[in-house]
Structure formats: structure tokens, C-alpha cells
Amino acid sequence: MTLTEIKAYLEQFFQDIEILGEVSVQIERVGKIEGAKKGDLTFVSNPKYEKFVSATQASVVLVPKKLELNFELNDRAFIKVDDPYIAFVFLLEKMSPPREMIPLGVHSTAVISESVVMGENVSIGANVYIGNNCEVGDGTVIGPGTVILDGVKVGKNCKLYPNVTIYDGCRLGDRIIIHSGTSIGADGFGFAPKPDGSYRKIPQIGIVVIEDEVELGANLCIDRATLGETVVRRGAKIDNLVQVAHNCVIGSNTVIASQAGVSGSTKIGNNCMVAGQVGFVGHIEIADGVNVGAKAGVSKSFLEKGQTIRGAPAQAIREQMKQEALLRKLPEMMQRIQALEAELKALKS
Amino acid sequence: MTLTEIKAYLEQFFQDIEILGEVSVQIERVGKIEGAKKGDLTFVSNPKYEKFVSATQASVVLVPKKLELNFELNDRAFIKVDDPYIAFVFLLEKMSPPREMIPLGVHSTAVISESVVMGENVSIGANVYIGNNCEVGDGTVIGPGTVILDGVKVGKNCKLYPNVTIYDGCRLGDRIIIHSGTSIGADGFGFAPKPDGSYRKIPQIGIVVIEDEVELGANLCIDRATLGETVVRRGAKIDNLVQVAHNCVIGSNTVIASQAGVSGSTKIGNNCMVAGQVGFVGHIEIADGVNVGAKAGVSKSFLEKGQTIRGAPAQAIREQMKQEALLRKLPEMMQRIQALEAELKALKS
Amino acid sequence: MTLTEIKAYLEQFFQDIEILGEVSVQIERVGKIEGAKKGDLTFVSNPKYEKFVSATQASVVLVPKKLELNFELNDRAFIKVDDPYIAFVFLLEKMSPPREMIPLGVHSTAVISESVVMGENVSIGANVYIGNNCEVGDGTVIGPGTVILDGVKVGKNCKLYPNVTIYDGCRLGDRIIIHSGTSIGADGFGFAPKPDGSYRKIPQIGIVVIEDEVELGANLCIDRATLGETVVRRGAKIDNLVQVAHNCVIGSNTVIASQAGVSGSTKIGNNCMVAGQVGFVGHIEIADGVNVGAKAGVSKSFLEKGQTIRGAPAQAIREQMKQEALLRKLPEMMQRIQALEAELKALKS
């Protein structure tokens, strides 16, 4: 790939790209700046790696606009761009050969009901099971060992990795990615107590709906609704080992990090950021754009948009930081109490 | 279904059911009160939905006994019952067509050892593996991709969803439900340190025993005992992504919510309620009927029956709330110290 | 097994083994001290079980060196050893028949690419899938339903339990154990925000490297690197449901308990002990030999070797215990403030 091609490609996404140094370089590979060689394209985004820039043998380096190139450029090119990391990612995507999970076509060992409506250019792996009355859209890839029970609709250009399970009746949109071992549509956790202390299972007859462009990590669980739908809205990204309980709604473009858990019927708004190991109680609502700190325990609704909350129980960050600051002042408070006691004693005697 | 049939059915479970309004209605569907139409049976349990009651077009509404029907009943019937939600659930179960995971019978792609003792009316999905010397009881359904290693006994009328793994030698009772991706009987996490800092694996030669009527969620883990048995007692319900370590005992009718973890050899009593993301250290004992708040860190035994504990480290709720209250008083304490200092200074001068 | 054989075997691992009592006993089984019978070998390690020693009918009891045998030895033998539990484990391993997950050989239903390089004495279970250009070393066992995508290298004498997924390009060393449902090499959780609030997926083109003698629990997740490698070093042991994010390094002989999570690019040293439900933020470094208490939230690097940290945010244990102690003194502090106020008021009037 030539520098001219790279520039043209990046200009689809970035404005005001500036090129310095040798323009005739050819790019053959991409890689990290440590150990980069001639023919490599690399980047520097984190200031602590800037020291590598002058010494690198990479042929092209994506650098932040504000970086001063006060050294010999030699036969290298430097591309100044707003966000070198994202620029690198775009190029990485363009230059990497596409990873094919499995060969195109339906593997002979896949067990597919005759009633399945199959799109074009679909790839179905070995030992896949697809039940009655399912639909699989054009260009979708389903990894070995994945199981899709009756009446599921999977949209176009989805990628389901191996050993995923989709329970009956769930609906998946287009361009969805689901990683290995994930469970979509298992029964919600609902039991009615009986007088003898045992429980009667509450039937879970709803479904799960996953909208377009959602990515779901590995070994996570999204339970079907008791009635109606558990919904993950367009563009949401959910990491490994997350729990989304029955009847939840996860908003559009909301990001949930690993091992967080959302209890039943809780609604999380659009464009939220939920850090790892956060827990939400059931039946609450979180406004759009809320940012939840790692390990927070969210025990009530937060309806103000765009706020940051943390702690367990979670509070607005200002309250929570005040409390943390006072906790750090406990030794000082104790000393001041002791000083007061001593002074008072002296005063009295 | 006629109102007479509904009443007769509910009277198996509830006393003093009262019917008001039009008794000739016919029920065709069940649904939520928002958007219910003629022919629907619905319910109101949560007071905030009571406003929907007068306006609903549903033909039958299950309502709490204390709800006053001070509006036109029109051609609708109202059934007063102690717990409309549970009544609704019973009716839902009766009126919903049973969901069949897979067709009856053994799929031709299932790999089943000749030595397996198979009950009647068993359904085995595609690509299931059942090892030597296993038993599968009457009416049990095993989903596609599930793997059962040697010497496992599965009782009657169990439902194992897809991609479950049961390790060798484990024993499952009757009417057990296990959701997709769950792991039963993996090796307990036991390692003996060697002088060079590395570890020697401690053999895990025990098993897991799951008693009748247990329901286990998706992607959870119950490890086999080092020696003897890890046990989940009759009627316990365990949610997705929970960890139950080697040699634990989970009591009868105990409910454990998602992402909780129980460390090795800990015994949890009967009829306990454990909320989400709780952690228990190993080798402790929890009495019957104990209620553990979300995210608690239980670091010692709690032997008083029926108590509620919370916090990390977990304490009896009274202690824990006192401490939380004092934390909220920290700003006030600081102000009172400052006031004392000022007064003392004034007094001295 | 005779006592002479037992002694000879243990002397490979322990010094100064002392035998008391009847030396002609024969061992047929191993078991717990409660309920042990003639012919059993058992052990006592925990002082609270010492009361069972004098009464046991076991033929041989492994006991701590310091235990005084001030009772009738009868026709039993007692073996004094530094660590009876580990001694027992060694014997357990020797005396137990090896558990074979599946029969030797490649099952006819396994789908294995022609390009796979297969070692000798390999066992491949039913419905396994192995993609193009993989290698499987001598003596390795791969359980039913496990999926290995293209270009994966699995070393010698590994044991992969059922329904595991290994993504393309990952490299596993020798003598590795991976339990059921685990996901190795799923895409790291990386997304670049776009101006409209949606996210563009950052390609994850790195791999996961698992070194020799690592054991990984069930349903855990180790994500592939964005670039380069996510690494689990030799001899590390990771429990069920743990999350290891992209580009992490887990040190040699480090032990991580269930449900802990390590965020992206964090490096954990060698010989660390991480308790259950701990969370680490991304891009930090933990020194060798650090001990992390249960449920800790590690929000910064800890570079001092061998220290113990706990709490959320995690602190050195000394700081953390001071703060906990002061929290317990809050009621006393409040009382002392009230006393000061009363005295001052009295003094003024």
C-alpha cells in the first residue's frame, strides 16, 4: 500500500491529514512501534511511547497532530492525524486479510430443519443445529457447535461464534456478532413461593430481541422475558460474562463491561458506559449517557442524563467523592477530638 | 376458556376467589394490561398499574382483593384473588402451549454409548454425547450439543438445555432444569504448593449431586468435590453465572441470584435468599432462612436462622445500617469538631 | 498397597517420615476420617478433626508430626509427615484409577481438517471440530463438542474438556487443562467512538498464548490481543468464570480465584494470589508475589513485591485495616464529640 493510497483512505474518516518526510515509502505490514521494521506502518498515541518515534525503523508512523518532529526524518514518513490510534485501526482493518471463521457453505454435519429459510452466501459450521421455522439472513456465519432452537430469526451478515445457544423464538437483527458460549433466551429467573417454602416456576414465555450492530462477548447470558421482550438496542456492546436478566432493556450504543449484571426489568438508557463488575437491582431506570464506575452497586433509578455515578450504593460522583475524602480524614478527625479533650482538660484544671 | 373453568382451576391454589362483572366472557389469550384487547386475560398487581384497570379492554382482569372497583364494569369480568400475579402465572402455564425444545425421540446424530440405560419417552437432541454406563430417566429431554461423560445418572423428566456439560460420575435427580452452557462436575480448584513456587494439582475424585426439582441457570459452574460430594439440595434455584465450588452444600429451596460465588466447603442452609454478586469465603456455614443482600462479602459463619445480612464484610443488617448512618453523618461530625475548636479558642482568649 | 510401598512412595516427596503402630496393614481404599473403615487410608490435618484420630477404624492415618499419639494404637498404623494433606493427595493420585474422559482414538463424528498435524496417542471426542492448519500434540485429549478454529497449536498431553472453544491462531503449550465451556481467543472488547455516538469495532488481530502446565476452569474467558498476545504464563491456575481481557499478562504460578476480572493490558506478576471476585482496572501492573483479598477493586499499580492488598479501592493491608478500625470507632467518636460539647457548655455557664 502506498502513502497516497493510505492518505486517500484515511481522508474518508479524518480531516486535515498532514504528511511529512519521505512520500515514496511502501507499506507491507502493520505492527507495534516497539520492534517495528522497514515496511511497517505503526502509530504513537500514548505520550509514553513518543520516545520510540525518533528511533523507529518503521516506514510510516501515525502520530498525534501536536507531536513535534524535532529529529531526522530519514527515509520515513509521518502522518499527523487527530487520533492516531483510530486511524491505525481503520488501516489495520483495511490491510488485514479477513479472518474466515469457517469455509463458505453449509457443513454436511450441520442439522438444519427443512423449514429453515436460508439466505444467500450463508456459512454454517460443523455440528450446528437449527430447529424448525428459523430464518438465517444473507451472508451470516454460524460457528461449529452453535445451537439455534425453533422459531429464531437471525438477520443478515451476522457472525455467531462456536457453541452459542439461541433459545426458541428470539429475534436477531443484522450485522450482530456473538462470541462463543453465550446464552440468549434462557428462562428468566422467576419463582413464586409456595406456602411450604418451595417454589413454583413462573413460566417465561417472552423472548429476547437483539437489534442491529450489537456485539455480545463470550459466555454472557441474556434471559428471555417473562412476558414480552428483553431488548438490546441497536449498536450496544456487551462484554464477556455479563448477565442481562428477564425484561431488561439495554439502550442503543450503550457499552457494558465484563462481569456486570443487570437485574430483572431494569432499563438502561442509550449511550451509557457501564464499567466492569457493576450490579443493578431490578425495576430501576438509568437515563441516557450515564457513566457507571467499576464495581458500583446501583440500587435506585438515576434519571439525570449524562451524570457519572459510582460506589455501592451508587451515588452521584460528587457526593461519593466527598464521602471518600472524609473517610481519608478519619485519622485527622480522631486527632482533633483528642486535642480538644486535652485542651478542655487543661482549661478546667 | 370460560370464567367458570378459570375459577375452578384457580380454586385448586387459592381460597375465597371473588368474581365481579360479566360472567359469560371467553378468554383466548393472556397478556400485559397495557394494550390488552377483548378476549384477553390480564392482571394488576403493582399499584402503579391500577390506573389501567378502569380503561382496559381485557375481558378478564385478575385484581388484588383490596382494589375498589369504583367504575363501570361494562362487559368485563374482574377476579379478586390474594396474589393476582401468582394466579396469572398459574393460568399462563395452563393456557400456554407447551414449548417443545426438540422433537421426541433420539436424534440420529446423537452419540450414545451402548451401555446407557435409557428410560421411556426420552428426547435426545442432535450431536449429544452420552458416555459409558450412564442412565437417563423417563421423559427427560437433552438439548443439542450437550455432553454427558461416563457414569452419570440423570433422573426422570429433567430438561437439559443445549451445550451443557456433565462430568463423569455426577448424579442428577428428577424434574431438574439446567440451562445452556452450564458446567456440572468440573474439577474443584485445588492445588498444593511445591517448594519451587509451582503447584501440584490435587486430584478431584468426588462428584456433584443435584437433587430433585433444582433449576440451574445458564453458564454457571458447580465443581465436583475433592472427596465425597458437592450437593445442591431439593428445590434450590441457582441463577446464571453463579459459581459453586468443590464440597459446597446448597440447602433445599435456597435461591441464589446471578453472579454470586460460593467458595469451597461452604454450607448454605435451607430456604436462604442470596442476592446477586454476593461472595462467600470457604469453610463457613450459613443457617437456614438467612437473607444475604446484593454484593455482600460473607467472611464468616452466620448461625442465627432467618437473619438478614449485608455489606462487605457482611454484618447483621442492624449493625450494617448503623454504620451506614454514621458514614452519612461524617460531614456533620466534622462541622461539630470545627465548632468546638472555635468555641474553645474564643473561651481561651 | 502395603505400608512399605506407601513409605517408599512418599519418600520421593517428603523427608523424615515416621511410622508408628502396626506395620503389616494393607490399604485398599482412601477416604475421609469420618466413617473410615478397616483397609482405609485417611489423614488428619485440621486440628479440629484430631479428636477422630483415636477412634478411627482406618488402617493407616497420615498425621501431623507434632500430633501426640497418647492412645492405644491397636492394629493401626500412623504416618507422621510434614503436611498430611499433601501426602494424602499424592497417595490419592497414585491409588485412584485414572479417569478417562473419553476412549483413546479419534471419534468417527469428529470433523478434522486434512491439514491438521496430529500427534500420537491422541483422543478426540465426538462432534469435535478442528479447523485448518492446526497441530495437536502427543497424548492430548479433546472432549466432545470442543471447537478449535484455524491455525491453533495445542501441545502435548493437554486435556480440553467438552464444549471448549479455541479461536483461530491461539497457541497452547504442554500439559494444559481447560475445563468445559471456556472461551479462549474471543475478540477483545475494543470499540472506537464515532461522532454520532455509535462505535466502530477495533479489529482484534492478536492471539492468546497459554504456556505449559496452566489449568483453566470452566466457563472462563481469555480474550485475544488487539495486536500481539494475551499471555498466561507457565503454571498459572485460573478458576471458573474469570475474565482475562485483551493484552493482559498473567504471571507464572499465579493463582486467580473464581469470578475475578482483569481489564485490558494489565500485567499481573508471578506467584501472585488473587481471591474471588477481585477486579483490576486496565493498564496497570502488579508485582510478583502480591496477594489480593477477595472482592478488592484494584485501581492502580502495586509495584512492591510480596505485599498484601485489599479493599475497593485496594490499598496495602496495613492502611486498609487502619481505616476499617476507625470505621468501627465512629460511634465512639460521635460520643466523644457529644461529651466535649456538654463539657464546654457546662464550662461556659
TrEMBL record, chains A, B, C:
It is an enzyme of class 2 (transferase). It catalyses: a UDP-3-O-[(3R)-3-hydroxyacyl]-alpha-D-glucosamine + a (3R)-hydroxyacyl-[ACP] = a UDP-2-N,3-O-bis[(3R)-3-hydroxyacyl]-alpha-D-glucosamine + holo-[ACP] + H(+). One of its GO terms (molecular function) is N-acyltransferase activity. Keywords: Acyltransferase, Lipid A biosynthesis, Lipid biosynthesis, Lipid metabolism, Repeat, Transferase. The active site is at H246. It comes from the Bacteria. CDD domains: LbH_LpxD (cd03352). One of its GO terms (biological process) is lipid A biosynthetic process. The keyword Repeat applies. Pathway: Bacterial outer membrane biogenesis; LPS lipid A biosynthesis. Homotrimer. PANTHER family: UDP-3-O-ACYLGLUCOSAMINE N-ACYLTRANSFERASE, UDP-3-O-ACYLGLUCOSAMINE N-ACYLTRANSFERASE 1, MITOCHONDRIAL-RELATED. Catalyzes the N-acylation of UDP-3-O-acylglucosamine using 3-hydroxyacyl-ACP as the acyl donor. Is involved in the biosynthesis of lipid A, a phosphorylated glycolipid that anchors the lipopolysaccharide to the outer membrane of the cell. This is UDP-3-O-acylglucosamine N-acyltransferase. It comes from Chloroherpeton thalassium (strain ATCC 35110 / GB-78). The lineage of its organism: Bacteria, Pseudomonadati, Chlorobiota, Chlorobiia, Chlorobiales.
